Amino acid sequence: EDSSHKYTMVTCTAPVNIAVIKYWGKRDEDLILPVNSSLSVTLHQDQLKTTTTVACCRDFVEDRLWLNGKEEDINQPRLQSCLREIRRLARKRRSDKDSTVDVSGLSYKVHICSNNNFPTAAGLASSAAGYACLVYTLARLFGVEGELSCVARQGSGSACRSMYGGFVQWKMGEREDGKDSLADQVEPETHWPELRVLVLVVSAERKPVGSTSGMQTSVETSSLLKYRADSVVPGRMDEMTSAIRRKDFAAFAELTMKDSNQFHATCLDTYPPIFYLNDVSRRVINLVHRYNRHYGETRVAYTFDAGPNAVIYTLQDHVSEFVQVVCHFFPMESNRGKFLQGLPVASTT
Ligand code: 2P0
Where would I find the Mvd1 C-terminal domain in this sequence (predicted)? Predict the structure, then answer.
């Protein structure tokens, strides 16, 4: 039998995470070190996710990558960082363990195939799930275990948070080498089973200003961003952690909305300004506040990332009513019966 054609293949999935305390701004562009800590909720595995298959084979002549079926440039620096880091950890582990172990497989080239079940680059955290999945899958293929959020972070900042389920914080860290800029779980996915996430797809188009260049301009030009990072986020991280631990929805929701609003305010304070929200986004914001005011309590929260799509946090009991309200105020044909694997998705364009 010709053994040269043998290949090893691993497939993994990683879910999207939606930040409730936003990451915006880096203090180190290469290592991807943030100017503030952030906190997010990782969605359930079978909702918005990336699926990645990595194969390695002695016959492969170069590393290659396909994203949603289309071949992409493998020489992107962040992709190279992740590949290099995982291979380095794999070598280290094998040489620590048993120097006689065959390490030839480590020099094999890999073919990576990655698919999202949601629109890429529409502000739906596709790079977070993508890099988390890539790093995790490569680690499985090469037999690497342990702390990997540090590697995922070097692919995309928000990716480090998708390495864990449930409620996850990314601690900004203090070190220059980034070794303490890691994600860790605040509470597991089982902690707050009534919590629900709704994604209102306002637009599935690519965003005009990418997160990486957007936050770079914000760091350079926005004094509000500096104020936010130094004086607002540290307190909010503590308050948010406490609200989550207590399962205090009103406190969680209010902090989430305020932090989203401050993030978009820093975008507006950036020069030239960055606009991620559109008229539909703003109508959703008003609708949420009117809905909460109607009940005299905070039942629903919105949050927006680097795009116009609204992410809604609410509790199980209020999902169907709020979906009805959204469908009433956004009466589009495409809204009807459009559910993404149990996750209600209201498409408004
Ligand atoms: C977040 N966002 O905390 C924030 C809120 C967008 C708005 O993390 O340059 O794609 O790859 O580190 O992680 C988007 O930024 O940026 C992001 P890079 P990333 O989810």
Answer: 197-349
